[in-house]
TrEMBL record:
A Pfam family annotated for this UniProt entry: Aldo_ket_red
GO process terms (BP): arabinose catabolic process; cellular response to osmotic stress; cellular response to oxidative stress; D-xylose catabolic process; galactose catabolic process
Superkingdom assignment: Eukaryota
Descriptive protein name: Aldose reductase involved in methylglyoxal, d-xylose and arabinose metabolism
Amino acid sequence: MATLLKLNNGLKLPQVGLGVWKIPNELTAETVYNAIKQGYRLFDGAEDYGNEKEVGQGVRRAIDEGLVKREDLFIVSKLWNNYHHPDNVGKALDRTLSDLGLDYLDLFYIHFPIAFKFVPLEEKYPPAFYCGDGNNFHYEDVPLLDTYRALERLVDAGRIKSLGVSNFNGALLQDLLRGARIKPVALQIEHHPYLVQQKLIEYAQSEDIVVVAYSSFGPQSFLELKVNKALTAVSLFEHDVIKKIAQAHNRSAGEVLLRWATQRGLAIIPKSSKPERLSSNLHINSFDLTKEDLETISSLDLGLRFNDPWDWDKIPIFA
């Protein structure tokens, strides 16, 4: 079982979970089921990933076979951009819970601080970048606090246990905290040695908000998406610094990258469908890097962001 991180609402978050982004639908249910058998309890999904039905199937199979109880699991989803208006937040949650076959979520993030035009669920779900006019971007003037307060009401109703935000910068997080009634428990960010975001991490941790890292392997996560910056970046698996540290500890480059995050107090959600990789990821805290290792890896920071909405439609979250 993974190390548990205490959240600011008293709940406990497994430090290592399985991220289901980009797991093919036909493999998702079996992958989730096998991960539960391996000892995983945190599953990080999202409406936009389009595989929540299959995640639910894997969870249901494990529960039906007596491997776990629902309360043993920490199930996460994220509110997609088209559902930010308070009238639509509950509709989106209804669909997520229906697809997962669950009565509540343990954590629900705002996926991006971006409000797209609402698309009826029966028209296209998940809508991705569709806003009723092909992949042309259309927006709604919905302040983030309005969306967040609608989510707070769903916490009051018992349908969400914890709230979080994803892809927020420091200023947006600080502004949200000024008006939030229920403090977010987690901030999920792109985080790898090419994009350390140390000041943002320090600020979130000072506010007792757990930082969850996604895309821990940097460009590797974006190769299949044909992101130009990822295609031209040096693979962290092949980086001389990472390889040297990995050799010194008799570990793989991937293990070093994950341990660099967890040893600094972050949670991680790497994706894998291979049993041996699932196991090594889950037990990533079985070795320690030196203080010099940690600092050397952090010094590779280039401010290189692969998941940037500026590249979608000049959306200035990180400008």
